[in-house]
Structure formats: C-alpha cells, structure tokens
Amino acid sequence: MNTQPAPAPAKAPDPATLIAAARRLAPHLRERAAEAETLRRMPDENVAEIRAAGLFKVIQPARCGGWEMDFHTHIDTVAALAEGCASTAWCVGVLQIHSWLAGMMSQQAQDEIYADDPETLIAAVLNPRGIARRDGDHYVLDGFWPFGSGSEHCEWLILGANVIEDGSDEPVDHACFSVPTAEIEIKDDWRVAGLRGTGSCSLVAKEVRVPAHRYISFRDARLGKTPGGAIHQGSLCRAPLAGPLSLALCPSAIGAARGALADFLAYVPGRTNPHLRGAPQFDSPLTHQTVAEARARIDTADLLLHRAADDIHEAAERGGRMTTEIRTRVRMDCAFAVKSCLEAVESLFLACGGSGLSDKNPIQRAWRDLHAINEHATLQWQTNAEIYGRTLLGLEPGTDIL
Prior knowledge:
Layout: H1 15-31, H2 33-39, H3 44-52, H4 71-82, H5 86-102, H6 107-114, E1 122-135, E2 138-148, E3 156-164, E4 173-180, E5 185-187, E6 201-211, E7 215-217, H7 218-221, H8 242-247, H9 251-267, E8 272-273, E9 279-280, H10 285-317, H11 324-351, H12 362-374, H13 381-392
Parallel strand pairs: 1-3
Antiparallel strand pairs: 1-2, 2-6, 3-4, 4-7, 5-6, 8-9
Helix pairs in contact: 1-4, 4-5, 4-9, 5-9, 9-10, 9-11, 9-12, 10-11, 11-12, 11-13
C-alpha cells in the first residue's frame, strides 16, 4: 500500500460554484431516483457525476486533496442534491463527514487513505458494534455493523468498536478504526421503506488486523483532540466530534422537503374536491395555509442547521471547546430541523389525497425518506428533547454521546 503523502490539492472552487453545481445535478438525480430505489443504492452515474463536480470533497481536508470548506457549504450542497434524490444526498452528506473524520486520524493513516487517490470515498458506522483487542502494534477487529450507507461505492471504512486490552473483557475505550473495504464483508441486506437508495448495507469484520496508527479515541475526539486534527492549516478538524456527526445527517431532509413543496405547488393547480362541489383546491384557504406553513417549517429547519454550523465553527476556533449547553443545543437543533421537515411534508402528502400514494408521485418518496431520516438514533426527537431539557434545567444531560 502506498503510504506517501497525498498530492497537493487543486485550487478549491468558490462555495457558490459548488452549490450551483449541486443544483444543476439535482434534475439528473431526480430522473434516476426510482432507479436508485430499485438498485437499493446510488446509481453509478450519480456517483460519477457528483465526483466529477467535486461534491464529495467539500469538507475533506486540503492536505488530503479536498476543498476544506465550512459546514455551511456542506449544508447547502447536500440540500441542493436532495431536491433531486434524498437517498443520494444522504450518502453524499455522510461520505463528506467521513472525509472530515479521516482528517482527525494520524498523519500516517490519512496518507494511507488518500495517497493513491484523493477522490477516495469513506463509509462509516461509528457506533461501537465491534470489539477490538490489542495485539502488539495492531488491533484485531471483529464485529457486525448495520447501516453502512454508501459502502458499496467506498474504498475505505471507519468502524466503531469497544477496545479491549490486557486480557480483560471490560472495554477501556470507544474508538474508531480505518480499514480498507476489501478487508470487510458487505452484506446485501438493505431492504427498507425509506432512504431505499442509500445502500446502507451491514458490514462484517472477522479478525481483521488494524495497525494502531489507524485508531482514534472517541473520548478524545469529542473534545476536539485527535492525532491528526492539528496538522491541518485550518481549524475545521479541531471541531468536537458529536455536533458535526449530527449535522451531517440533516441537510438531505431540507432538500427532500423543498423538493416535495415544489412538487406540490406544481401538482395542485387544476385539482378539484368532489366533496365540495368541485371547488378548486388551488383556491382553498386550507391549501394556502398548508403551503405557507410547510415553507415556514422548511425555512426554520434551514436556519437552525446554519446556527448549528456557526456553533461548531466557533468551537473549532477555540480548539474544540464547547459548553455542554451548546453541545445539547446543536443536537436539539438537528432533531428539531428534521422533525420540522417531516411535518411540512406530512401536511403536503395528506393534502394530495389518494393520488399521493401513487409510485409516480414523488411526494410519497419524500414522505418515506423523511420518516427514515427521523428514525436515525442521533436525530430522534424525544431523546434529544430530554437531553436538552435536562441541560436547560441545570441537570446532568443523561448521555455520554456529546
């Protein structure tokens, strides 16, 4: 394996250029949205077009060949793609954040990942679903990780595990390990109701030997202290871990909801209600209220995500320091944002009546995808409301995942 440093990056495009490129790609992704659901993964054409536009590299560190932009650009590019295909945008969002996470690895690990190809894509499942036992200068990794979004298109994986050392069965750390995809089994088991096109297959490791330099501790990463965070010129990789990992899951919800609203606005003219003597739905005050509230919910969600991005960048500039209240607020903002997008699309879906159930109606796909996004453990509303409410009341937040 080549361990030479990654080549110097090309000149980074302007953020507006990348956002415009994402908007141009959205209609192409929409044309293939049904195909993505049939394939249960991103179509190869989607991956090729997104790669050619440089949209996988938005927050990839510059020394690794990326653009190293901010989380505002991350939000806007992923949301634009999701107006075409939420499944594809979901994968782009998480693959972007995994490139950011790779920038926290040791310099040697970063160079191993990117030296052969700065376009390398990385999937990840960070929950400690595996066990890593120390064996000299390696760890032996075993485990089963569901929800490996985009993994079939990736050359590398980052997997979470409980670390076992000194012959004990008690974990001494929760860590993540970078592993070539070729060393892991990808199970073809992604058959679901929403986000069908994400290829979020399960990943299996059986006694995979991982060099110790490809290990980072979550305990340190949550404080913005990692082996590789300080080797980059900018502060992006010094941000604390939990906030960005939550934020990365949310922009596809914004785009899916925007796309559904645009679809409804095009759908409703000419429709009538036979139970109201054929009254035009377009002229109904209820329709006016529905679209106005949907737009307000989507805009509110967008504003909350950008506030969370500001919080994260401010913490990165302080070397990763972030108060507990801000940490819990970022999680709350993310959960509230995706919940607001779901509520917006729920109202549009119900306003479609029976025809909204048609496979040809894209609003039903957005409705299913948004339910799937809201089911992610990190974004579940009740959990995040409890954590944030406890903090506001001056109580201990009741979680270690901050």
